[in-house]
């Protein structure tokens, strides 16, 4: 917001004095406050950026101090649980527009943010039924001005989609790295030394913040368990193909998944992948 000149004054709150000082030094806030209540006073827009499990507590702290007509949004990775935790604490006349930028890294804390983080990434909004359309439109315009592509969907649908595209993949990465760690026949130094690219990608994901991800799984329980059930079924099918030497099944399966990867790259959603001119050539 600062880089694009989209806000007059940006103020922030963090629990630790160290984080507040870091935020001030980096310069992405004009002022920091030791309490959430002080921070939101007079604010037109309040963005809640705490782990999903802490959203309710912060909403309870700020509720009585919000300006009438203010908009509250959040960036939580799960939407139904955040809505249930936050909405009851917001007074009438304050607009709540839940949101989720599908952009991030395995890093946490004030030094991990950067102005281009949201560029060409999706930012999903899950407006509440009966909410103020003008507040949603204003937030959409802000996200777009930051460089994001905005889509709106129901919170329940969001949680199922993200269970497929983000939450279960994280759980699988955590598990794979845990498996490597547990395997007595492969020493830790071998895991580090010979770590192949695929495993290295898993370790990056598995280095993500434990509090954030604990809360994601505890609050998006049903959708994650559903997708995990399907994952297990597919895994057993692949396991069987390997055991029975069914190369055709494996080949067809990997051909299908390769097409999904190519679709993501063609949609411009993999910022890490080198393009090598492929998309231009239409291959
Ligand atoms: N990291 C990502 O990739 C990513 C992407 C999209 C959305 N999110 C969501 O954004 C939110 C914040 O994640 P982040 O990556 O910015 O984490 P972060 O660790 O960088 O920031 C979270 C902050 O919340 C503070 N906090 C924790 N519990 C608190 C409490 N009870 N009261 C007050 N403050 C508290 C922490 O001290 C920390 O300063 C989460 O809800 C997460 O699901 C994260
Ligand atoms: O690239 C990463 O490090 C991420 O995991 C970011 C990522 C994801 O793509 O799954 C993680 C959680 C979010 O809620 C949104 C984005």
From TrEMBL:
**Reactions catalysed according to its record:** prephenate + NAD(+) = 3-(4-hydroxyphenyl)pyruvate + CO2 + NADH
Q: Which GO terms describe its molecular function?
A: NAD+ binding; prephenate dehydrogenase (NAD+) activity; prephenate dehydrogenase (NADP+) activity
Q: Which Pfam families is this protein grouped with?
A: PDH_C, PDH_N
**Pathway info:** Amino-acid biosynthesis; L-tyrosine biosynthesis; (4-hydroxyphenyl)pyruvate from prephenate (NAD(+) route): step 1/1
Q: What is its EC number?
A: 1.3.1.12
User: What are the residue boundaries of the Prephenate/arogenate dehydrogenase domain, all occurrences included?
Assistant: 1-272
Protein's name in the database: prephenate dehydrogenase
Alphabetically, which GO biological process terms does the record hold?
tyrosine biosynthetic process
Which family does the entry's similarity section mention?
Belongs to the prephenate/arogenate dehydrogenase family.
Q: Record's InterPro entries?
A: 6-PGluconate_DH-like_C_sf, NAD(P)-bd_dom_sf, PDH_C, PDH_N, Preph/Arog_dehydrog, Prephen_DH
Q: Which UniProt keywords apply?
A: Amino-acid biosynthesis, Aromatic amino acid biosynthesis, NAD, Oxidoreductase, Signal, Tyrosine biosynthesis
């Amino acid at each position: 917001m600062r880089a694009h000149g989209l806000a007059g004054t940006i103020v922030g709150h963090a629990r630790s004095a160290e984080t507040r000082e870091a935020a001030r030094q980096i310069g992405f806030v004009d002022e920091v406050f030791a309490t959430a209540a002080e921070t939101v006073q007079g604010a037109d827009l309040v963005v809640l950026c705490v782990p999903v499990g802490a959203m309710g507590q912060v909403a309870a702290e700020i509720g009585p101090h919000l300006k009438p007509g203010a908009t509250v949004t959040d960036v939580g990775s799960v939407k139904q649980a955040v809505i249930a935790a936050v909405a009851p604490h917001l007074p009438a006349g304050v607009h709540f527009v839940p949101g989720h930028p599908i952009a991030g890294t395995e890093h946490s804390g004030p030094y991990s943010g950067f102005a281009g983080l949201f560029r060409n990434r999706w930012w999903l909004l899950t407006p509440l039924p009966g909410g103020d359309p003008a507040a949603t439109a204003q937030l959409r315009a802000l996200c777009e001005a930051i460089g994001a592509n905005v889509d709106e969907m129901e919170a329940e649908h969001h949680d199922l989609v993200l269970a497929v595209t983000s939450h279960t993949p994280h759980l699988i990465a955590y598990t794979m790295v845990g498996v490597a760690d547990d395997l007595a026949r492969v020493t830790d130094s071998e895991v580090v030394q010979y770590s192949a690219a695929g495993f290295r990608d898993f370790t990056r994901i598995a280095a993500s913040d434990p509090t954030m991800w604990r809360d994601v799984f505890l609050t998006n329980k049903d959708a994650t368990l559903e997708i995990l059930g399907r994952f297990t079924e597919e895994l057993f099918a692949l396991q069987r193909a390997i055991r029975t030497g069914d190369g055709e099944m494996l080949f067809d399966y990997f051909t299908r998944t390769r097409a999904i990867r190519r679709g993501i790259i063609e949609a411009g959603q993999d910022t890490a992948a080198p393009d090598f001119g492929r998309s231009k050539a239409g291959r």
